[in-house]
User: Which sequence fits this backbone?
């Protein structure tokens, strides 16, 4: 087996409102672009089959698994990562504060992805019921919480909009 | 106001919620290189040749190493003679995924390219993946020098045949407790930096000091030159107390390349390389009277250890045998076990580690007894419980003396929260309606052994000792730092330990910081496993804080010219009782504690710092009663969990929010074992569940909501009275779910189905019964027994 010939390209996108321009191997996944070129390490990696959602970010406001996208595919787009989320609860957004209030996290590894997925959900459905929340978080795996407190966290956020 | 028992929000959350937590792979020191492993594609084979020329010629590759480069280093620690695991496979591979060679390259993409370019030639050997195959007469041997795939056998002293024959009836089950994967969402990762002052190893690990001891010894360097740091750790569940080769090799690779070297496992690698759990086969038999009273219990356990005996893996069947009789007063209990190697990923501790297997089997057989006797399962449990006044309760094993409990009270609360009586009536009604879903109710009155701390309880797994340490340091401004030997991975020690310390010291929660996970700053520690964080580590914090307070009172009394006995601590100050205004703040006392001239003669500067290695005289025994209601669509076999009631007794609760979170997480894993998860190998030993597409870790829509209840009996074996809560859910949940499903299928005469119970298995069972023409089970005995429950 021989290695894929490497090609490098220079790309630019906006991450949390700041232009991010790097020369990268064309194979570079968005999640690695965010973590290794921009050094924003809040976006995590939990699998290699697009199942866990730990890598979820917003691309133009929509929740996307950043391990399923090549960095070159989002050239010129607006990316929001967990580091770009904030709000009026002592600096935390309603979703972040909901997770704090309802113990929606334990080890915290899945958490940035959960927060981004929930943020994406509330942007389109500000008042989801339990079943809707569960269905919409289907692509995010948490091994610690058993999900009930995550569902309650998202409900808390819906009830306390920023 | 006491903080112990209060729903305090977590100190760790703000950093984890904003993405500024630090997990190992987040670290990127300058010049950091990346390691990646060539792993075996064969389950059992001889290595004929390894060709790494192409890889070595690739851009960005710093080197490729094989077992031949590590001949000066020992095998991994904790192995058994003749069954040791080499750091890289030497001549022979014994499971798919076993590391064979390691590449270091400039980044992870180049490392992956180079791994793909290494060619390994194998001569395939016949593989065995199950206990049955491994113990067959002509089975291929994994370790010829050992001469058998059976590692060891602990035989039964007495087969209890006489007692069984004296009973009215007997029942037996053959139960498979299937192999599961722990799947912490952060897979294994480490970063080694071998500098002039020695080694720093960052690792996602549950027991950093334990790792430090082993790595230093393996490398033959002084422990003082080996610093291990477990930063934020993304879950563990037992899989991060295992001696993975990557943790030992990374330091050498750093030394040899003179670069920091990082390794971060992909999930597909993790599914094959991180230890698995469970994988026991049980034959359980009980003798019982028509009244449902169980007189004798016999449990024969076979443990699949995977390819290499892991130190914790070797302890699993022991724990199962200890807990074989659960919470029941059974006059005669006998167990045996054997450990067997197979061509599969090594098996080690996974949340519950041997106790879920015990609880599952005894709770399953109790349901069978109930059905045979025509008595409601709740009633049969009540008739067999150890009573609340019978503690300490000596079991069939002298090491196991149950500490305290109130099993009937837990069951009563569970039945109430579940609406058991009402649901039984609905069930009877629905059974007459051919179009209705099948309703089933399942109970699990589980018991486990936790609070690992008594002398000897962890040394067997290679740990230095079984105590847990805590150190309290009062800063000159009166704030406090707690250094904890127990290093968490999601449990929330920063919060619970600060609650305990705050109550003892009278220092506000916000002025207490808990530190752990760094062998350079924390005194010796053991680790977080076996539900020992609060009972052992938390107790250490409580006792050591009390000692510091006693000294602080001496200083305060001296400053106030009052008697110590008259002092009380509130509002962050020492007040003289009955003399309002006569007080000195904690900050003043702390400041004075560093000024020799202001101290009473018996104290020296810096005396508000104290350390403790807390030992426990015995284990703790968390227990509970879980109830599950399911409905099953008979046309598809699909199971819906309508209610999941969780009544726990973990003794003293430090933080109900966190305790409940622990239960939920464990229950999710327990339900997952009952319904979804199973590590599967094909007959060639190839894993067919080696990623998260094929291995079904449930997400939010796959799991129900939970209803929690609580009874509290204190543990007499530690100063907090706490029993531990980390593993409860995974111990209790599987039997509740499986019993509910089999209750729903009772009309079809189905006595048992093995986990995971998929819709397909249920559908097959229903259709097999239809073909057999099983008559509708009489609902008489059920409604009769309802009366006993409801009354
Ligand atoms: S890392 Fe992207 S889905 Fe798992
Ligand atoms: S909090 Fe640990 S994986 Fe979700």
Assistant:
């Amino acid at each position: 087996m021989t290695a894929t010939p490497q090609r490098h390209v220079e790309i630019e996108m906006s991450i949390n409102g700041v232009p991010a321009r790097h020369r990268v191997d064309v194979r570079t996944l968005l999640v690695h672009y965010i973590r290794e070129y921009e050094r924003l390490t809040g976006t995590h990696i939990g699998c290699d089959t697009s199942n866990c959602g730990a890598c979820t970010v917003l691309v133009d406001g929509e929740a996307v698994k950043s391990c399923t996208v090549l960095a070159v595919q989002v050239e010129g787009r607006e990316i929001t990562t967990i580091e770009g989320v904030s709000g009026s609860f002592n600096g935390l957004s309603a979703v972040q504060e909901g997770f704090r209030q309802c113990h929606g996290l334990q080890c915290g590894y899945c958490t940035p992805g959960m927060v981004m997925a929930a943020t994406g959900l509330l942007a389109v459905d500000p008042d989801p019921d339990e079943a809707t929340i569960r269905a919409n978080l289907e692509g995010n795996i948490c091994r610690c919480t058993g999900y009930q407190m995550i569902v309650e966290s998202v409900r808390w956020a819906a009830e306390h909009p920023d | 106001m006491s903080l112990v028992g209060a729903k305090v929000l977590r100190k760790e959350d703000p950093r984890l919620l904003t993405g500024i937590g630090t997990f190992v792979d987040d670290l990127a020191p300058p010049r950091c290189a990346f390691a990646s492993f060539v792993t075996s594609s064969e389950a059992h084979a001889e290595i004929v040749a390894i060709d790494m020329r192409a890889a070595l010629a690739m851009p960005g590759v710093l080197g490729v190493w094989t077992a031949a480069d590590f001949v000066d280093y020992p095998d991994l620690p904790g192995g058994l003679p003749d069954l040791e695991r080499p750091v890289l496979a030497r001549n022979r591979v014994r499971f798919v995924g076993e590391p064979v060679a390691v590449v270091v390259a400039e980044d992870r993409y180049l490392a992956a390219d180079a791994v793909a370019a290494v060619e390994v030639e194998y001569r395939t050997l016949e593989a065995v993946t199950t206990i049955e195959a491994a113990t067959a007469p002509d089975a291929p041997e994994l370790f010829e020098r050992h001469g058998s795939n059976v590692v060891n056998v602990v035989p039964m002293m007495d087969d209890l045949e006489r007692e069984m024959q004296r009973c009215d009836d007997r029942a037996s089950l053959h139960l498979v407790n299937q192999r599961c994967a722990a799947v912490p969402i952060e897979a294994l990762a480490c970063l080694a930096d071998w500098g002039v002052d020695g080694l720093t190893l960052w690792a996602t690990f549950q027991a950093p000091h334990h790792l430090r001891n082993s790595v230093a010894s393996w490398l033959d360097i002084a422990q003082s030159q080996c610093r291990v740091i477990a930063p934020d750790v993304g879950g563990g569940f037992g899989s991060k107390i295992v001696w993975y080769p990557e943790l030992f090799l990374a330091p050498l690779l750093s030394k040899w390349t003179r670069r920091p070297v990082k390794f971060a496992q992909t999930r597909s690698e993790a599914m094959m390389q991180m230890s698995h759990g469970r994988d026991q086969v049980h034959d359980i038999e009980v003798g019982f009277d028509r009244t449902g009273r169980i007189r004798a219990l016999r449990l024969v356990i076979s443990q699949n250890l995977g390819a290499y005996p892991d130190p914790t893996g070797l302890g699993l069947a022991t724990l199962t045998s200890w807990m074989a009789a659960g919470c029941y007063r059974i006059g005669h209990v006998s167990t045996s076990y054997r450990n067997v190697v197979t061509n599969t990923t090594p098996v080690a501790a996974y949340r519950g580690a041997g106790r879920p297997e015990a609880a599952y089997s005894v709770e399953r057989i109790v349901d069978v007894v109930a059905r045979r006797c025509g008595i409601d399962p709740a009633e049969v449990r009540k008739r067999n419980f150890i009573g609340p006044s019978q503690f300490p309760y000596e079991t069939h094993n002298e090491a196991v003396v149950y500490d305290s409990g109130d099993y009937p009270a837990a069951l009563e609360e569970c039945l109430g929260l579940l609406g058991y009586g009402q649901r039984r009536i609905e069930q009877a009604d629905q059974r007459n309606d051919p179009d209705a879903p099948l309703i089933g109710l399942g109970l699990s009155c589980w018991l486990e052994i936790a609070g690992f701390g008594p002398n000897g309880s962890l040394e067997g797994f290679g740990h230095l000792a079984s105590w847990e340490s805590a150190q309290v340091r009062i800063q000159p401004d009166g704030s406090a730092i707690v250094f904890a030997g127990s290093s968490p991975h999601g449990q929330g020690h920063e919060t619970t330990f600060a609650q305990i310390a705050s109550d003892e010291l009278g220092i506000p929660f916000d002025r207490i910081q808990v530190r752990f996970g760094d062998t350079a700053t924390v005194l010796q520690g053991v680790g977080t496993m076996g539900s020992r964080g609060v009972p052992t580590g938390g107790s250490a914090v409580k006792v050591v804080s009390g000692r510091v307070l006693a000294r602080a009172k001496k200083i305060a009394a001296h400053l106030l010219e009052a008697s110590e006995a008259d002092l009380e601590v509130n509002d962050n100050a020492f007040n003289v009782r009955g003399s309002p205004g006569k007080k000195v703040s904690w900050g003043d006392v702390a400041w004075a504690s560093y000024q020799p001239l202001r101290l009473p003669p018996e104290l020296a500067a810096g005396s508000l710092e104290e350390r403790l290695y807390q030992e426990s005289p015995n284990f703790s025994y968390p227990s509970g009663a879980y109830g599950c209601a399911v409905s099953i669509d008979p046309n598809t076999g699909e199971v819906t969990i309508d209610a999941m009631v969780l009544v726990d007794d973990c003794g003293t609760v430090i933080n109900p929010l966190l305790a409940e979170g622990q239960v939920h997480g464990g229950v999710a894993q327990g339900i997952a074992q009952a319904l979804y998860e199973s590590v599967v190998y094909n007959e060639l030993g190839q894993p067919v569940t080696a990623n998260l597409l094929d291995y079904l870790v449930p997400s939010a829509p796959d799991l129900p909501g939970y209803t929690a209840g609580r009874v509290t009996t204190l543990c007499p074996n530690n100063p907090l009275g706490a029993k531990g809560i980390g593993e409860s859910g995974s111990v209790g949940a599987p039997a509740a779910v499986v019993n509910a499903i089999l209750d729903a299928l009772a009309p079809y005469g189905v006595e048992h189905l093995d986990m995971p119970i998929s819709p397909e298995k249920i559908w097959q069972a229903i259709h097999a019964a239809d073909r057999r023409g099983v008559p509708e089970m009489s609902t008489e005995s059920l409604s009769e027994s309802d009366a006993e429950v409801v009354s």
